[in-house]
Amino acid sequence: MIVSMKDIVKRYQSHTALDHLNLSVNQGESIGLLGPNGAGKTTAIRVLTGLTGADSGEVMLFDSPMKENAADIKKRLGVVPQDLALYETLSARDNLEFFGKLYGIKGAELKTRVDETLEILGLTDVAKKAPKKFSGGMKRRLNIGCAVIHKPELLILDEPTVGIDPQSRNHILDFVVDINKKGTTVLYTSHYMEEIEKVCSRVCIMDSGNVIADGSVEEITRSVIFEEVIYLEVKEPSPSLPENIKKIQGVKSCDVDGRNLTIISKSDSQNLARILEVATPFIILGVSANRPTLEDAFLSLTGKKLRDGDA
Amino acid sequence: MKQFLAVFFMGFKYLWRNPLTVSVIICFPIVFILILGNALSSYITPVLDFEPLHIMYVTDNEESMFAEFLKTEDISRFLDIEITDEAQAVQSVTDNDICVAIFEKNGEISIIKSSVSSVGTSVVLAVIDSYIQVSAAAEIAIANGANPFEVFRAINSEFAVDAVPLGNRVPNAMDYYAVTMLVYIMLLAGMNGLELFNKSLISDTGRRIMTAPVSKSTLICGLVAASTLTSFLQGMITFVFTALVYGVYWGERIPLVLVTLFAVVLLSQALCIFLILLFNNPGPPVAIIQATFFITTFVSGGYAKISFGGAADKVLAYAPNALAHTVIFGAIFGGNEGRMMFSLALLFALAIVFFVLAFFVGRRKLA
Q1: A216 with A239, same domain?
Q2: Which residue, A150, A294, B258, B312, has fewest beta-carbon neighbours within 10 Å?
Q3: Interface check B218 vs A, CB under 8 A
Q4: Contact A250, A265 (CB under 8 A)
């Protein structure tokens, strides 16, 4: 197991930021951390990266306690903070070299790693330029480059795509997916559900300092959202049609308004096909279904919309 | 060690690639000395191309040091001084016949001025200012063991004359001013590194660095080393500038002068890193350092000697400026060796104390 946080408590005066948090990450996983503002995500990452100590509980990384082996553990860790952590008057190459040296890389190996990283992140042409002249997307990419120059085993990204253009965002997402495929374990926080769905195989939703849901996107939505809404438009529906639909197992209700039918069904019942079969004798003009999303699950679990409330 | 060097080289490069820092490092001391030093330098007198300004001088002692000072050749190039009585001087100023009259009574100097010539008033004020500098220089020289008779003889005969390396040399005004300003500039030099310290310790970049396998002490030492070297180079630029442009006499014990400057730079850096770690913000350190060293420069005789008398003067003799002045003036003009070494040791000790405090605060406050 790459990460094991057991029963972590962290208090700031009277505020409990982490309340007996339990979180584990297996090798090779790509895990997304979601939560509204004040859920404890940032504190969890600060504890995980050794920036702050926990009041109680146990943090193990690479099967080793963080408290005792911080230096060794940090060598295997890559951190991309939400805010840019670059020296804006130094060149992109200087920034990468500096962070590389902090991780003990030197000489020819350092040069090779820097060249590789610049190439992968599409920054080779601007290697000698200072980041202050870069676009937001280029700065973000360099920010990530500084975290991966030493090829970490665990890469922690805290909202790495905030405020950048779609092209740079796609570049970064593709990079994270690629680095995960090559074996790097990824812990990713984001406001953007589609990023989490693209990058992460597993999602943890945090609220009030603890994990309240943990699993794949599908598992979480199924476990939380129990209903789906199917809309059917039928030419001249008979009175028997809604009655027949209601008889299908898992269908909770079927309301008729003219030629529009609104059907509420259990979300995991896969009833759409059965409903269409019952409606086949009629002329079907249109059909649509509102399937539950991770956003719905998040709202249901935390009572807050992700992009409005998270930070 | 490799991490220390990585931080050091990054910090050094960062400071020299920051246009604002570079302009402060190179231009600030030169402009500072150019502007203020011109009042004292003999180098500007040849370019003064005007008829001597007619003024009146009222004194109760025509053989006073100030009276002798006014009689020097350099002063008479631009001041035509008429010694007269108080009534006539006041009447002449009132009638706008002259722009300024100088009064010296019981050793105190004052002026009255007309409303017609602010330029003339400025010239007279600059002359008085120069005299105050020379007096302060004399005071320092005597305090450092120079012969009072030689000092006063030299003041009256050598003001605004190029430095002549005599065995028992005393400082002329510019020699004195160069030392006090260089010490002052070096005490402020710690602020050169504040932005680097803030970036690398306090800001998001600092927190990011702390997630890397680098110790707090290595980080602090590397940053301070980079800033110290940069500030010391700033001191060297000023040092060379004053020697070449103003012909300031730095004596024959240059290594001791440079070691003292290094101690001053180190103390300034230590104080800055301690304060920024204490406040988590570069604002308060800037305010504290500027205010503190402005005051200590004055009380140490940096511009016009201020005496509080008694115990206060004894305590203020241990202000960083005063300690540095003791060593440097002693090295140049011959001072009490024991007192010089004690002052130098105290400067290093103060620097170490602030470093220890900085590490202590850093351990608690840094991630």
Answers
A1: no
A2: B312
A3: no
A4: yes
Paired tokens of B101: 């009259």
Same domain, A131 and A246: no
Q: Which 3 state secondary structure label does DSSP give A105?
A: coil
Asked if B6 has any chain A CB less than 8 Å from its own CB, the reply is yes
Which CATH code is given to the segment(s) B47-159? 3.40.190
Domain count, chain A: 2
Tell me the pLDDT of chain A (311 aa) as tens digits.
889 999 999 998 888 889 899 999 999 999 999 887 778 888 899 999 888 888 999 899 998 888 788 888 999 999 998 889 999 989 999 999 999 999 999 889 999 999 999 998 888 999 999 998 888 888 999 999 999 999 999 999 988 888 788 888 888 899 899 999 999 999 998 877 888 888 998 989 888 888 888 888 778 777 766 677 888 999 888 888 989 998 888 888 888 888 899 888 887 667 888 888 888 888 889 998 876 677 777 777 776 655 544 43
Instruction: Identify the helix (H) or strand (E) that includes residue B4.
Output: helix B2-17
Q: Which one of B3, B21, B208 makes the best mutation probe of the A interface by having the most chain A beta carbons within 10 Å?
A: B208
Domain residues for the domain of A267 are 226-291
What ipTM was estimated for this complex? 0.76
Contacts of B208 in chain A (CB under 8 A): 79, 81, 85, 146
CATH of the domain at A251: 3.30.70.100
Residue A44 belongs to some domain of the structure:
yes
Flag whether A101 is in a domain. Answer: yes
- A70 contacts on B by Cβ (under 8 Å): 213
Shared domain check, A279 and A170: no
| In chain B, residues 172-211 whose CB comes closer than 8 Å to chain A | 199, 204-205, 207-211
DSSP string across B208-238: HHTTSS--HHHHHHHHHHHHHHHHHHHHHHH
Does A57 share its domain with A184? yes
A50 with B210: Cβ contact below 8 A: yes
Is the entire prediction scored with pTM above 0.90?
A: no
CA torsion angle for B352, B322, B345, B226 (degrees, to 10)? 40
The helices-and-strands tally (H runs, E runs) of chain A is: 12, 14
Do residues A42 and A171 both lie within one domain? yes
